[in-house]
Design goal:
The complex is a heterodimer. Chain A is an all-beta fold. Helices cover about 0% and strands about 45% of the residues of chain A. Chain A starts with a strand and ends with a strand. The chains are: A mainly beta, B mainly beta.
Chain lengths: ~120, ~110
């Protein structure tokens, strides 16, 4: 049981390049999330998917797109990377996002450097 | 928007010492969560609190949900080197998509 997996672990991009971060969970969770973590700041929500087939913006969605490919997979795409998107990206999943007693499980993160 | 103030930002302690950290908010929450992040890893849930006033333990860790619903603290007793990491508090009002994270407390433990 792997939990939440993310690929790649590390990535270096040039400004303007595009890439997709992959995330998969094997816990049969309904909800999935993408966060970014920057030094001295807490995790900030980029996008989330409450259930298969739905996606919604979080706190910092600009410059990103997401796809909930199926119940297991939730990808994050940077169409034209900018240095401000240098960060550590975490994917998370939970049983149900609208529950008031809901626990998120996090992947190991993708470290992205945009030059 | 909602913000959590987590303090202290960092702590340098000797092995065996007790540790206390806390989070405060100007808004109320229905759930308080405490996560630990090891270097190079994602956050892992330590303790979840669901009721105002609730006091919950997990081994050497104890956390409390403040009665005003605007604060929470985490205590670690008899610290050991593997306690090193970043501890995050998080507040939830209506569910996962409304989880607000604190900036974290970096804990360093000297053997």
């Amino acid at each position: 049981n792997a939990g939440v997996t993310q690929t790649p672990k590390f990535q270096v991009l040039k400004t303007g390049q595009s890439m997709t971060l992959q995330c998969a969970q094997d816990m049969n969770h309904n909800s999935m999330y993408w966060y970014r973590q920057d030094p001295g700041m807490g995790l900030r929500l980029i996008y989330y998917s409450a259930s298969e087939g739905t996606t919604d913006k979080g706190e910092v969605p600009n410059g990103y797109n997401v796809s909930r490919l199926n119940k297991r997979e939730f990808s994050l795409r940077l169409e034209s990377a900018a240095p401000s998107q240098t960060s550590v990206y975490f994917c998370a999943s939970s049983e149900a996002t609208h529950s008031t007693q809901e626990t998120q499980y996090f992947g190991p993160g993708t470290r992205l450097l945009v030059l | 928007g909602q913000q959590l103030n987590q303090s202290p930002q960092s702590m340098f302690i000797q092995e065996g010492e007790d540790v206390s950290m806390n989070c405060t908010s100007s808004s109320i929450f229905n759930t308080w969560l405490w996560y630990k992040q090891d270097p190079g890893e994602g956050p892992v849930l330590l303790i979840a609190l669901y009721k105002a006033g609730e006091l919950t333990s997990n081994g050497r860790l104890t956390a409390q949900f403040g009665i005003t619903r605007k604060d929470s603290f985490l205590n670690i007793s008899a610290s050991i080197p593997s306690d090193v990491g970043i501890y995050f508090c998080a507040g939830q009002l209506t569910g996962g998509f409304k989880t607000i994270f604190g900036a974290g407390t970096r804990l360093f433990v000297k053997a």
